[in-house]
């Protein structure tokens, strides 16, 4: 289930051209505030907002309720809390400055790329 949710979030990010999508598995850390962090960035504040909105929409379609969210007032760094998954959508320069994933450099991480779309076969 969690793998499906992480992929759903990654796809929602990539659909809106979010970049550098990773998940960090924090389950083995004592006192971690979530099981997973998903981190990505976008090139401008409009895109940060669009990525966060698309995540919320796709998660709601799957029956997941957003518990808390912060950062929509400026779209520099939006945090969405889904309980066991915390999502960080950064403006690129903010991600480069805070380097959040470096704080957990020793935990398992996964990178997400856009999935290739199936191309229909020709009837030649």
What keyword list fits this structure?
alpha+beta; 124 residues; globular; 6 strands; 27% strand; Beta Polymerase, domain 2; six-stranded mixed β-sheet; 3 helices
Give a quick rundown of the structure.
It is built from 3 helices and 6 strands, in the order αββαβββαβ. The chain has a single domain, classed as Beta Polymerase, domain 2, CATH 3.30.460. The protein has helices spanning 2-15, 45-61, 92-98; strands at residues 19-25, 36-42, 68-70, 77-81, 85-91, 109-112.
Overview of this protein structure:
This protein has 3 helices and 6 strands. It has 124 residues and is of the alpha+beta class. It has one domain (2-102): Beta Polymerase, domain 2 (2-Layer Sandwich), CATH 3.30.460. A 6-stranded mixed sheet has the order 3-4-5-2-1-6. It is globular.
Low-confidence stretches: none
User: Which structural category fits the helices and strands?
Assistant: alpha+beta
| Tally of DSSP β-strands | 6
CATH T-level topology: Beta Polymerase, domain 2
Q: Numbering strands along the chain, what is their spatial order in the largest sheet?
A: 3-4-5-2-1-6
Question: How widely separated are the two ends?
Answer: 41 Å
Q: Assign the CATH class.
A: Alpha Beta
Order of helices and strands: HEEHEEEHE
CATH architecture: 2-Layer Sandwich
Give the oligomeric state of the chains in this entry, treating copies of one chain as homo and distinct chains as hetero.
Answer: single chain
Our count of domains comes out at: 1
Largest sheet: 6 strands, mixed
Proportion of helical residues:
25-40%
Q: How much strand content do the residues show?
A: 25-35%
Averaged pLDDT = 94
Count of discrete alpha- or pi-helical segments spanning 4 or more residues? 3
Shape: globular
CA radius of gyration: 15 Å
- Output the CATH homologous superfamily: Beta Polymerase, domain 2
């Amino acid at each position: 289930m969690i793998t499906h949710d992480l992929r759903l979030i990654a796809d929602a990010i990539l659909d809106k051209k979010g970049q550098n999508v990773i998940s960090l598995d924090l389950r083995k850390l004592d006192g971690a505030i979530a099981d997973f962090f998903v981190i990505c960035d976008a090139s401008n504040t409009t895109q940060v907002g669009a990525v966060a909105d698309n995540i919320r929409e796709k998660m709601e379609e799957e029956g997941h309720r957003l518990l808390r969210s912060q950062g929509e007032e400026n779209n520099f760094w939006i945090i969405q809390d889904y309980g066991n998954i915390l999502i960080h959508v950064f403006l690129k320069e903010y991600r480069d400055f805070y380097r959040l994933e470096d704080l957990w450099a020793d935990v398992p991480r996964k990178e997400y790329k856009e999935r290739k779309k199936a191309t229909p076969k020709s009837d030649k």
